[in-house]
């Protein structure tokens, strides 16, 4: 809403400058967008809240300023405006012979008009043209300029029709007929539907109600008779029509936010005042006013002590009465602690006591509210339970050297999407042919798609975080990258929290010193997952898997945390690596965490530590390659018993000297006994026991 | 006796000519070791007449301590020079680049979220998550939106079905809590929100929000202001002041926009941070919370806004683009 300093001064007597006025308006809720210079005068652009259409006028903003600023005084014009601009010819019935008005739809609650004859619709006087220019309106002709100006002044949109062009000299407010055409003032032709409301003459639509008039009946320089419309329409109907047909007009801006139904005739009268002042001419006597549905008055009780409690500052009954009456509330009764009030008809946002509390607060001044901290029951705050677990997992992943990324949930389909369980229970991934054919029009089974995506490549909710990680790798175009994301994924069976990791290339950054030559592979990722699991004290285990089409079939494993199978890890499938431009050595893990809600976690298990020295024995064995290491591992643990403090694999060798199909494993064994020394014979015996157990699995000592 | 003096003088002469601490260690061994030529003199004491034995013993001991003291002195003086030489030989260029251990880097939004969780958690607000794909009734209906509110339009909100939307605000947690929890309670969440908006420097179709609220007896706008004050000062520094301006949101009454001002940012100008207010009584009543006994406050703000203001980041899109040139600026 734009208005100049002098437009405010017409309504408010004040010494405040434009900036001070803007500050006060901002603190009533009507926020200043900017002050600019318009032909040598400050022009204010004020943002109007969606539920405060009454503010979209000089009158409405003046009311706010007068309530907020104790030094401001109403002018004579303001007083006449609050009295609805009483007209001397109010009792006249002359107009009745000139035209008729009929409302046929409940979305129009009032339609009033005046008629002007013997017109000369020339240009407006310079002061009027200037004021319109200052607020960004183009001066056109006296009739059009006055409708615009009065709308800015009092907030009621007006429209001037050439009465000679209205067939039957009739106005009918009705819903459009299906397919009915209307050419609006902007020159566009619209094909209308029955949910669009129109103003019509006896033959056809002549205007889009509350939005824009029709071109055919608009006033021109040859107009000699004019019918001036002021009406009240339901805000939702106007909003729907204008958004559907792509309009933005000053009239619809106001109707959407609601306009005072009781100000309809007042606006006609204000127009008439100005018209007479400028031309010396009078209108045809009287007003046609069809007003089938008057608004129900809203009467409320305000308990001032309760209001003070809710606001956290003290307001007296006298202050409450002053503030509310300045805002146009009718005071119906006063008691030592309460007020009975009736809300003004322009305040459709006020319907209950708390709405009045807000009125008191904003006029009294929110800056007077002190800062206090709530007392009472204070629980232990912050994340609890499962949220703590995901925090721990995320932090452990950072410690493992993975960089965190955050990606969009809405995206296109991707080869790394989680495979969806097909109808027959078999798992199918997307084929690259399906993807290359563009985003499938048909809904992807098992996937969540938004009905009206912003663009085709943001149509689906991701069902895996891996595609996001692949995107991050591509964006940074790095050979060496170790990244992860924690976030939600969506499938037909619900919304899940997932952590996914992607790792490729070297861990050390290139530098001037010889660096650690380790590069990412299945086992570096496995080790990271083990560290991450250790942070939550959940045991981690793996099961060989071959079924996930995104992974190398002989280099993938299911991951089990505690008792819960949480996902899959392994090396990327070479074909997918090629098609997604990822390094073939990329390893990835995708863990869905929701199943862990039932796991006990977070408890370390303490055992005493021996003060006696440890002894170490290394063994090297030959073993068939098809014996999985964890079988040997279990055998070592079992045979070693409580004296085996630690053991680790430190070499795997195949080649010269090792039979085909076998490998040589070197394993370190560290023994220590609680509260007793182990002598050489005892250590050797422990080693021999372990070797014997391994022999049973087919191992031979080298 | 003369023998003692000779050996002693021999030792002293050798000490004087020694050039390195290593030579000194050899001299130490030669004269003062278990079988050293000075210590060894004591072996001959048995052959002396009884009256000379104490005198001879005293002479040997005195010579030994004289040699030992000189040896120590000389060792100390040589050591200084030798260390100085060693240091020179071991000189490094301290301006060569350091080699950092490879830890993961937290995303700047995570860093911000951690801070938010720490501050609100320490004030007794319990963190709780809620779905991104939300029921219509929690995102709109239960938050006092009138049935035809423009925010519900398909142009503004992503619908999956008539009943499922991508939440447009984290405030959707509130009705979920009201439905299941008896007051008093303090809760907050941090999460993604979605709006069907064109993407540019200051708009994105996805962004993060904090939503924080409490319901208890006698909760007022002053408690809201106090909590926001503590929160804003924790995020932006101790000089921060909080200002309320009336604003309209369907789920609060009175509703305000809150702005902060600090000499450190934007020359102390008021900068809007988010929306807040007392939880609308229509909402509390809908979930059978007695508004005669209880009231509550709520506030929300965009997570991205915090680092944008604090660090002067000028493009909202960076937060979801995962460009390391951006992310590595926030370690």
Strand and helix layout:
The complex is a heterodimer of chains A (702) and B (331).
Chain A (H helix, E strand, L loop, with lengths): L1 E3 H7 E2 L4 H11 L2 E8 L2 E7 L10 H11 L4 E2 L1 H7 L17 E4 L4 E9 L9 H9 L7 H13 L3 E5 L7 E6 L5 E3 L5 E3 L5 E4 L4 E4 L3 E2 L12 E8 L1 H11 L4 H8 L6 H16 L8 E3 L8 E5 H8 L5 H10 L3 E5 L3 E5 L10 H12 L21 H14 L3 E2 L5 E2 L8 E2 L5 E2 L3 H5 L23 E2 L4 H11 L4 E11 L2 E11 L17 H13 L5 E6 L5 E11 L2 E9 L1 H6 L7 E6 L22 E10 L4 H12 L3 E10 L8 E10 L8 H17 L3 E2 L1
Parallel strand pairs in A: 6-9, 20-25
Antiparallel strand pairs in A: 1-4, 2-5, 3-4, 7-15, 7-16, 8-15, 9-12, 10-11, 12-13, 13-14, 17-19, 18-19, 21-24, 22-23, 25-26, 26-30, 27-28, 28-29, 29-30, 31-33, 31-34, 32-33
Chain B lengths: L1 H16 L3 H12 L20 H37 L18 H15 L3 E2 L5 E3 H4 L19 E3 L2 E3 L6 H8 L4 E10 L11 E12 L3 H16 L4 E6 L5 E10 L9 E9 L1 H6 L7 E9 L2 H7 L6 H4 L2 H4 L4
Parallel strand pairs in B: 1-5
Antiparallel strand pairs in B: 2-4, 3-4, 5-6, 6-10, 7-8, 8-9, 9-10
